From TrEMBL:
This is Carboxypeptidase C (Cathepsin A). It comes from the Bacteria. InterPro entries: AB_hydrolase_fold, Peptidase_S10. Residues 1-19 form the signal peptide. Keywords: Carboxypeptidase, Glycoprotein, Hydrolase, Protease, Signal. One of its GO terms (biological process) is proteolysis. Pfam families: Peptidase_S10. GO terms for molecular function: serine-type carboxypeptidase activity.
Length: 507
């Protein structure tokens, strides 16, 4: 199965961390980190005032940075989640102003990626295609959605500065598909109450495993917090617990292969001379109407038909027909990333196939490293540490966990795609938008379309579901043109999902 192949980031080894108490702390509740004897405060915050320019308009805003508790059934703080909450200043009617609640993926990844590269008011220093630049710095984000919505970036336990209050708290409280959804729904309920945002239209946005998270949260918030959403935005979605089957899992990769091969100019001239979005429908049609039925036949597929299918896979993927046949018409993803540019001495990136890597040897069946992830860490890690301390005045000796220790993660009983469908069926106001990069090989764009088809087989919800594609990878917003377009797509999604005055939630 392809389940969890699209995790944005793998978690890394446990690192002991600490957080600072400051004079703006809301409470003196503290727990001791037994490994370091340093104090972690699960309930503290600091407020800073800022201005920025978005779409040519000067905007003042307040940033609240800190931790807020996760409570157990007895009202005891068992963790503190680190968050940054951006509110536009001078809003007369806060009740009418949308609130966007943002999660990244992993499942052990911090909110850093979308916070300082996508929807937040500040932006890392990278070039127009998303590659690192020095000196590392933060600048204004002229495309942020803060002009139309307030945004809170949330970090689950062990990501960024979020921690359990004690090592005695069972990890099963946090580290699993359904445990994650349950405690985060409780935390969101507390946050919305504490910030007095119950009247506001609410949206969830998640990236990569964050799409699993927010799809499950949509129903959990309805059923257990009695909180109803206006929208869910899925950025580079996982399979959402939707079963593919062997044939579908093999077939659905091909349009991504074709997009990547087109980018690297590895296709025949008749395909290469077409624009990307002009070429891909041909591949998609072949995938669904010829390749998928053929793969379903397995060894019963006629030999002549097998060769015809292999030739077409080779034509669309940039991989030789011989290699396609050697792999029984199913090219493994790792092998594709190694093979496509093997003769040129390069690999291509998993999360963004525009990125090239250099391996120790050209032989082998998988790249030595993820070229794109290495590049992203190069630019993001210094920037977020500088930003927290210098811009948000959150001074601490804690290590900011780009990836936190969250293993073992209980992946059982993932029905998050069905959860989202149920939430939409029960709430006529709930809309869904999917955003995908054509060059994402972990959560590929065609599988994200397949999700929508399988989530809503009757087609009764399709008028409230939309899909957007971008000419970059997993984090499509790293490309400047896509950053602008994708944020504008979110603005339009919010605008279109706000019901007109007097319109009721009914079918």
């Amino acid at each position: 199965m392809k389940k969890f192949l699209c995790l944005l980031l793998l978690t890394v080894a446990v690192t002991t961390v600490q957080a600072q108490e400051d004079k703006n702390s809301k409470t003196d509740t503290k727990e001791t980190d037994s490994a370091s004897n340093l104090l972690f405060n699960p309930d503290q915050s600091i407020i800073t005032e800022h201005t920025t320019t978005i779409k040519g308009q000067k905007i003042a805003y307040k940033a609240t940075t800190g931790t807020m508790p996760v409570w157990d059934e007895d009202g005891k703080a068992i963790a503190g989640l680190f968050y940054t909450y951006y509110e536009r200043s001078n809003i007369k009617d806060r009740a009418a102003r949308p609130l966007v609640i943002s999660f990244n993926g992993g499942p052990g990844s911090a909110s850093v990626w979308m916070q300082i590269a996508y929807t937040g008011p500040s932006l890392i220093n990278i070039d127009d295609e998303g590659y690192p630049l020095q000196p590392y710095s933060i600048k204004e984000n002229p495309y942020s959605i803060l002009d139309v919505a307030d945004v809170v970036f949330v970090n689950p336990v062990n990501t960024a500065y979020s921690r359990a209050t004690s090592k005695d708290v069972p990890k099963t409280k946090f580290f699993g598909t359904n445990a994650d959804i349950k405690y985060l729904a409780d935390w969101i309920g507390s946050f919305v109450t504490r910030t007095n945002r119950w009247a506001s239209p609410k949206y969830l946005i998640g990236e990569s495993y964050g799409t699993t998270r927010v799809s499950g949260l949509a129903l959990q918030l309805q059923n257990n917090q009695w909180m109803y959403l206006n929208g869910v935005i899925l950025v580079s979605p996982t399979d959402l617990g939707i079963t593919r089957g062997v044939a579908a899992e093999a077939a659905l990769k091909l349009p991504y292969f074709a997009a990547t091969a087109w980018y690297h100019k590895m296709l025949s001239p008749d395909l290469q001379n077409k624009d990307l979005t002009e070429m891909l429908p041909e591949v998609e049609n072949f995938t669904m109407n010829e390749l998928l039925p053929s793969l379903s036949k397995g060894s019963s597929l006629d030999e002549q038909k097998r060769k015809e299918i292999a030739a077409k896979i080779a034509r669309y993927s940039g991989i030789s027909e011989k290699v396609v046949l050697q792999n029984n018409l199913d090219i493994p993803l790792n092998y594709f990333w190694k093979e496509l540019l093997r003769d040129q001495g390069f690999t291509v990136g998993r999360l963004d196939s525009r990125y090239k890597g250099i391996d120790k040897k050209d032989a082998g069946d998988r790249p030595d490293f993820n070229a794109e992830l290495t590049s992203w860490l190069h630019s993001f890690t210094p920037a977020i540490n500088l930003y927290m301390r210098n811009n948000l005045n959150y001074k601490t000796d804690f290590k900011y966990n780009m990836f936190g220790p969250v293993n073992p993660w209980d992946r059982s009983n993932d029905s998050t795609g069905e959860n989202l469908r149920q939430a939409m069926a029960q709430n006529p106001f709930l809309n869904v938008m999917v955003q995908s990069g054509y060059y994402d090989g972990a959560c590929d764009y065609f599988n994200s379309k397949y999700n929508m088809w399988q989530m809503d087989p009757s087609g009764k919800l399709k008028d409230r579901m939309s899909w957007k594609g971008y000419r970059s990878g997993h984090m499509m917003y790293l490309r400047k043109q896509d950053l602008e377009t994708a944020n504008e797509d979110i603005r339009e999604f919010i605008k279109n999902s706000l019901p007109k005055e007097g319109v009721s939630a009914k079918y």
